[in-house]
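I hope you will forgive my troubling you with a question about protein structure. I set the record out below, with my sincere thanks for your time.
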Amino acid sequence: MKDFSHLKDTISSLPLQPGVYKYFDDLDNIIYVGKAKHLKKRVSSYFVKAHDNRKTNVLVSKIKRIEYTVVDTEYDALLLENLLIKELQPRYNINLKDDKSYPYIKITKGFFPKIFVVRNPIKDGSEYIGPYANKKMMNTVLELALKLYPTRNCNLNLTPKSIGDGKFSVCLEYQIGNCKGPCQNYQSETDYNQSIVNIKHILKGNLSVVKKHLKLQIEERAAILAFEEAHEYKQKLDWLENYQSKSTIVSHTISNVDVFGMTSTPQASYINYLRVNNGMIVQSQNLEIKKKIDETDVEILQNAIAQFKNMNPTENEEFIVPFKLDLETNFPITIPLAGDKKKLLDLSIKNALVLKLEKQQNAEKLDPDLRVERVLTVMKEDLRLKELPKHIECFDNSNIQGTNPVSACVVFRNAKPSKNDYRHFNIKTVIGPNDFASMQEVLTRRYSRMLAENTELPNLIVIDGGKGQLSASVQALKKLGIYEKVAIIGIAKRLEEIYYPGDTLPLYLDKKSETLKIIQQMRDEAHRFGITHHRNRRSKGFTITELTEIDGIGDKTADLLLKHFKSLKKIKEASLEQISIVVGNKAAENIFYTYHPNV
C-alpha cells in the first residue's frame, strides 16, 4: 500500500465535526472535494485500506495535501460541497449540472408579491430564501405557510389603480380558499403585506406558529378518530423539528465580503480567512502567527489580513472582523453583532479554534509535558487557584441503606489518576448515615497522618457534595491548622456547581471545559472506588455473619478463617484437618459438621 506518512499529522488532527475536505495533487491542483458529518472519520477511511473502486484508488494515490473547512451542520457541509464542486470543477468529482442545483423560495418585489420555487436565483430585487437540500421539507414548510397565509399565484399586474378601476375578477383560487381576492380589493394591501412578513418569519426558521398549528390539527384529527390524517400531520411536525432553513453557507443578503476570525494564546495567534462571493463561501484559509514580543491582537490581525490579501487579491466590498482595527480603507469594516454576517464571523472563528486545537495536539504529541502544563494552567485560572494543581485529592462517601459506611480518596497527579495513591476508609466514629460527620472524620484521619509523616499536602482538595459537605470539610482542615495552606472546593452533582468556602453563589464552568471534565472524572472515579470497596465490605460482612451463626465461632475466628481460605466456598470444601490447623479441633468440628452433617 502507498506510503501516506506525509499526511499522517494532518489526518490525526482532523476534528470530529461536520465540514468539507479538499484533496490536492503534487502540482497543488485541487482534485477532489467531499463533505463529512465527522471529518476525521471520513478522511481517515480513504487511507486505512485498499478500495474496490479503481477510481478511488487512483484518487488516493495522487493526494499530496489536504485542506478542510469546519461548518456548523451536516446540512451546511452538503451545501458548501455543492458550491465548491461547481466553482472548482475537481477532476475526480462528478460534474454538477444546473439541474442539480438546490431550490430556493422566491418572494417577488412590488405590489402584492408572489411566492414560488426557483432553481437559479438572479439579482432582480426579489428576496430568495434557501437553498433547501431537502425538497420535501421545503414543500412542507411552503405549503403550510401558504395555507396559514394564502397569497395569489396569478400573473395579473395588480396595482392600486388597476384594482380600483375594477379590471379584474376573482378566480377559482379564491373560491377554493387559496387566495383572499386582492384583485377585487377583498384583501387590503396592508393585510397582504403582513401575510408576506409572517410567511418570511416561518420560512426563515420561526416555526413556532406552524408547530402550534400542526399540533392542533393532530389533536383535532385524533379526536374524530381520523388517525391516518393525524399521522400525516405528525410526519410534517417531525420534519419541521429537524428543519433548518437558514444556512451560514449561502446568504443572498450578503454580496462580496472577506471574513477574518481569530483566536490567540500567549505564544501564538490563529487566523481563519473566508472569501465570500455572491453570498457563497468560495475559499477558506488558515494562518498561524508566532508571537515574538507582546504584539496586540489588533496588530497581529492587521498583519494577517495583509498576508491573506497578498496571497488572494480580491475586490470584495467589505471586511468582517471580530474587533476594531486601525485601518483606513475605502470600503466598510464591519464588526457584526447579529444576523447573517455574525454567523459568518462565528464560522470563521470556529475554524480558527480548530486550527489552534490541531497545532496544540501536534505539539503535545512531540512533548507530552506541554499538555500537562497547559491543562494545569487552565485549571489554575478556571478555579482561581494560587498555584498549579499538580496534586489533587477527591473524597466521596458511600453509604448504602445506612450499612457499612465507607469513604474513598482518589489522587490525581499532573491531571492523571495516580491509582497507587488511592485510599479507602471505613468510618469508625460515626453511627448511622451522616455524610457531614463522615467527611470530617475522613479528612481528619487523612491529613493528620500526612502531617505526622511530613508528607507533602495536595494543592487542591475536591469534595463530592454541596455546601454542607464542604463546610464540614473546612472545619476538619481548620482543626488541623491547614485550612489556609490547601485550596478546597465542593462539586454538587445536579447542576455541576463548584462551591468555595464562604461563597454563597457557586461557580459554573463551561460544560466542555477540560477543568470540569477532570473534576468530573475525579468525582466519578472516587464514587466507583468507594462503591467497589463498600460492596466488598458488605460481602465480607455477610460471610462473617454466616460463620458466626455456628456455635463457638466469633468475629475474630471468622475473620481468621477468611484470611486463610480467602472465601466461604473454600471453607466449606476444606477437610476437618485443614480447618483444625487454623482454629483448633473443637471449632473445626463445629464448622466441618455444620456443612457436612451426613459425614
DSSP finds 20 helices and 18 strands in the chain. Residues 104-207 form one domain. The first helix runs from residue 8 to 12.
